[in-house]
Write a structure and sequence with these properties.
Layout lengths: L1 H13 L11 H15 L15 H33 L6 H22 L7
Length: 123
């Protein structure tokens, strides 16, 4: 639901705007890819159980992938702030830049809630 609101905010701010280029879409795309990848990894490998079926190579690879996906999400958020500062700071209408930041904050929030907010033993 938060992800849908993020996309709605971005589309709503840019429906009638001219001067929105593909480069303005890239932070949202990067954050969305990070959202998909972070939810594809299981956190069970991070537990240090001695009876785990994962070997150290698998564990290290998953930790590396988790770090890369967190960097993707953070990179999307940082690039949206950068685009807001560079592209929309001196313009009369800063709504697309603000919507870009709000979109990426909501995508980041939804990724973190989906990954760390749910429990596997609930069902």
């Amino acid at each position: 639901m938060i992800f849908g609101i993020a996309l709605w905010v971005w589309i709503d701010a840019n429906v009638n705007m001219k001067g929105i280029y593909f480069g303005h879409w890239i932070p949202g795309i990067i954050s969305t890819i990070g959202l998909i990848l972070i939810n594809a990894l299981s956190l069970d490998v991070l537990n240090d159980d001695g009876f785990s079926s994962y070997d150290s190579t698998t564990r290290n690879a998953r930790i590396f992938c988790l770090i890369i996906t967190m960097l993707l999400i953070l990179g999307g958020l940082i690039s949206s702030v950068w685009i807001m500062i560079v592209e929309f700071q001196n313009k009369n209408n800063a709504a697309p830049g603000t919507a870009l930041i709000v979109e990426n904050v909501l995508i980041t929030l939804s990724a973190l809630i989906m990954k760390f907010g749910r429990k596997n033993d609930e069902f």
